[in-house]
Write a structure and sequence with these properties.
The complex is a heterodimer of chains A (99) and B (84). With 99 residues, chain A is mostly beta strands. Chain A is built from no helices and six strands. Chain B has a five-stranded antiparallel β-sheet with strand order 4-3-1-5-6, with helices on one face. Classes of the chains: A mainly beta (99), B mainly beta (84). Chain B: Keywords: Bacterial microcompartment.
């Protein structure tokens, strides 16, 4: 699971029926140095490329979320679904203390 | 599977049901000289690894699904063992 900051949303006019009920978030993955105060104040944009993440937990802009990528992102669905990244946690706090 | 150092933890009250009850540890992959490699990731911990413990992190999604007893769990990374 990677940690990212929701910086926007994408809206589709036409999309597959299996996506009903969810939405698409634009997520900027955070760098380690941003973890500690990410939940308290809006982190700056990191240099990492933005990811489009499917969300059915209800995350909004500004939230710090945990997302999985790859085959595991499709595991919660009982039918085949073309998803690359899925939001699985909205964080209340993160503590980061590197050695 | 890779060797990592526990560098923190995260708290989430709103998450996938299969994550409930497991600790979410921030794990930083390290090389043979204990130098960090790449970005930290989050792994679930059912064994009680502490801050700055050296651990094995597995990236086997099927193993993670068995561990949390949920076939529909999206978890991939889990702490498989604590290095003595």
């Amino acid at each position: 699971m990677r940690i990212g900051h929701v910086i926007g949303r994408a809206t589709m006019v036409i999309q597959q029926a299996s996506f009903k009920g969810g939405r698409w978030l634009l997520v900027n993955p955070l760098d380690g140095s941003q973890f500690n105060d990410a939940c308290a104040k809006r982190p700056a944009l990191s240099a990492q490329p933005t990811v489009v993440v499917y969300d059915n937990l209800g995350a909004g802009e500004g939230d710090i979320i945990g997302f999985v990528e790859g085959a595991e992102a499709t595991a919660p669905f009982d039918h085949p679904i073309p998803i690359d990244a899925l939001n699985i946690a909205i964080f209340d706090s993160i503590s980061y203390h590197p050695l | 599977m890779f060797v990592a150092r526990v560098v923190g933890h995260a708290v989430s009250s709103h998450c996938h049901p299969s994550l409930k009850g497991s600790k979410l540890m921030l794990c930083q992959a390290v090389d043979a000289d204990d130098k960090p490699v790449g970005a930290p990731c989050i792994a679930i911990d059912l064994f009680g690894a502490g801050l700055h413990s050296k651990v094995f992190v597995s990236t086997d999604g099927l193993g993670a699904r068995h561990l949390v007893h949920d076939d529909s769990s999206p978890i991939r990374n889990f702490i498989q063992g604590i290095v003595d």
